[in-house]
Amino acid sequence: MTLADGNSSRPPARAGIGLRAPHVAEVMATHPAVPWFEVHAENYLGGGPALRPLETVRRDYPIALHAVGLSLGSAEGLDERHLDRLRRLVERLDPFLVSEHLSWSVVGGVYLNHLLPLPYREETLALLCRHVDRAQEALGRRLLVENPSSYLRFSHSCIPEPEFLAELARRTGCGLLCDVNNIYVTCENLGLDPNAYVDALPPGTVGEIHLAGHSVNEAEGRPVLIDDHGSRVAEPVWVLFGRALARFGPAPTLVEWDTNLPALEVLLDEAQAADRWLAPARSDKTNARAA
Amino acid sequence: MLALPELQRAFGAAILTGDAGALAHAIEGDGLPPAARLQIYRNHVLDSLTEVLKATYPVICRLVDERFFGYAADRYIRSHPPSGPCLFEYGETFPSFLEGFPPCRDLAYLPDVARLEWAASVALHADDLPALAVAALGEIPAVRLPGLRLRLHPSLSLHASPWPVDLIWRANQPDREPAGIVDLGAGSACLEVRRSGDDVVLRRLDAAAFTLRRALLEGGSLGDAAAASAVDSGVDFGAALFELFGEGMVVGFESSTSTQETT
Question: Is A48's CB within 8 Å of B85's CB?
Answer without folding.
Answer: no
